[in-house]
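Exam revision sheet. Question 4 asks you to relate a sequence to its structure. Input first:
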Amino acid sequence: ATCADNAPMENFFGLLKQEMYYGDPLVSYEELKKRIEEYIHYYNHERIKLKLAGQSPIQYRTSTSQSAV
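Answer key, structure tokens:
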């Protein structure tokens, strides 16, 4: 119910536009959809984040869930 509720998604969309889209020519809907799906996979599986101990979100989630057991 506050503007902070949307902050994670606004941050993600900002990164998506910066890293994937700016400067590229416009493409068809199908190509754009494919590029967004590829970027989401890259963001979750390959892109490291310093806040996550230099791991991707999937790696971090896996390592923290294993250490909790």
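Marking note for examiners. The chain has a mean pLDDT of 87.
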